[in-house]
Design brief:
The protein is mainly beta and 149 residues long. It has a single domain (19-144), classed as Roll (Thiol Ester Dehydrase, Chain A). It is 15% helix and 40% strand. Strand 1 (24-29) and strand 2 (32-38) form a beta hairpin. The protein is globular and about 45 Å long.
Length: 149
């Protein structure tokens, strides 16, 4: 069942501006989450990523999916993260970019927890904008004890 989510993003994951690429959690259920990111026209990366033809770098599209995955793990019993541990990206597989994304678009990310094996969380995500496919990616995060030190 799709339920509206009341998740405090900043209290759940350590990412902060200018490297926070999730603005809202729209839905959350066991093993699945839907988030949105409003791509601001004044985003720092547009100054250098094709001046005159602003384009969101593909790596940042992926990062939005990875941050949604971290939120899912931190908010979901299926992907549970022990206190003091953090999810760290360990694998990116089969990233497929479908179209470019520019300033002012709102990206919707649906992320799923496909499998949990020990500290590894196998996940998949799809990003869309205005109902059009933007990115599909599979990735793995490992839950590491003791934080990032």
């Amino acid at each position: 069942m799709h339920q509206p989510a009341d998740i405090d993003i900043r209290a759940t994951i350590p990412h902060r501006e200018p490297f926070l690429y999730v603005d809202r959690v729209l839905e959350h259920e066991a093993g699945r989450m839907v988030t949105e990111w409003d791509v601001r026209a004044d985003a720092h990366f547009f100054r250098g990523h094709y001046p005159g033809q602003p384009l969101v770098p593909g790596v940042l599209l992926c990062e939005s999916a990875f941050q949604a995955g971290a939120l899912l793990c931190a908010s979901d019993e299926r992907g549970a993260i022990p206190p003091g541990a953090v999810p760290v990206l360990t694998r990116i597989a089969d990233a497929r970019f479908r179209r470019r994304v520019g300033p002012g678009e709102t990206l919707r990310c649906e992320v799923k927890l496909d499998e949990r094996v020990g500290p590894a969380r196998y996940m998949s995500a799809k990003l869309t904008s205005n109902g059009e496919a933007v990115l599909r990616v599979q990735f793995v995060v490992a839950i590491t004890a003791g934080g990032l030190a």
